[in-house]
Design brief:
two-stranded antiparallel ribbon; alpha+beta; single chain
Length: about 45
């Protein structure tokens, strides 16, 4: 289930107003109940 959630979040089309999303990384943090989501953006 964790892997499926990670893959779904990574595959989403992320939208941030005024930015172009260049890359998304989703991984589980050291706390088993926390996700870490990193989004690389470029200002539009």
């Amino acid at each position: 289930m964790r892997r499926a959630l990670q893959e779904r979040l990574g595959a989403l089309e992320w939208r941030l107003p005024g930015h172009i999303v260049a890359d998304v990384a989703v991984e589980w943090a050291s706390d088993p109940h926390a996700l870490r989501i990193e989004i690389l953006t470029v200002e539009d």
